[in-house]
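Support case: adenosine-5'-diphosphate complex. Customer-provided input:
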Amino acid sequence: MIRIDNLKKAFNGFQAVDGITFNVSPGEVLGFLGPNGAGKSTTMKMLTGFITPDSGSVSLCGFDVSNDPVAAKSLVGYLPEGAPAYGDMTPLNFLSFIADIRGLLGKHKTSRIDEVIHLLELQSVCNRPIDTLSKGFKRRVGIAQAILHDPQILILDEPTDGLDPNQKYQVRELIRGLAKEKIVIISTHILEEVTVVCTRAIVIARGRVLADATPSELEARS
Ligand code: ADP
Ligand code: ADP
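Agent response - structure generated as follows:
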């Protein structure tokens, strides 16, 4: 369960997030939809503890993110927008590096990396530099990194942006599978992303919630 209560964040006097409140329950795939500059990334970064809110609170599975940032980091997996950093590493090296940061050790580390490589079907590319892979593979490496520590909450920033239709389909199928056991939040400016994969949508603009609806309700309005 995620509880977000009256979150606010300003940058140099500009109110990027202006009082956002919502809850997300297990089983939901929440689309966080809004135009560029709406405050999506800032909100998501407050969920992961990456940015500290000016006021309001975020509670993840009963842990308050401000009081317990370590718990928050272990509960959340995050896919940043775009290609993974460290493009000169191979997926195998990159996942090993992330596993070290996450504190996965010994046999457990090796078996979990193996499991994630199979799940994301990265076997054929796991020894090639990430920079040399297709966008679809790069995105799958990003998702592999996000789920490596088996978080209960998965936050995906523009997960299919820039992918061709086939790669989009594959990533969306993957998200559907992951959503069976995790709360998934997809941050996006694309309505289709929400109507195709999400069970619920929150629309934000100028740092405020404009609508909280099912994807079909949103489609009917647009
Ligand atoms: P979105 O993800 O919806 O595109 P963001 O949360 O990235 O929106 O940004 C919301 C607003 O806050 C934008 O106007 C952006 O320029 C501003 N902003 C975001 N991060 C910073 C920052 N670190 N410093 C100053 N302004 C920022
Ligand atoms: P950079 O040096 O460009 O910040 P990072 O790898 O630290 O490179 O981050 C890449 C992007 O992902 C940045 O925009 C950063 O704000 C975001 N990011 C990284 N880790 C997190 C996190 N735990 N929560 C939210 N955003 C994150």
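The longest helix spans residues 106-119.

Case will auto-close in a few days if no follow-up is received.
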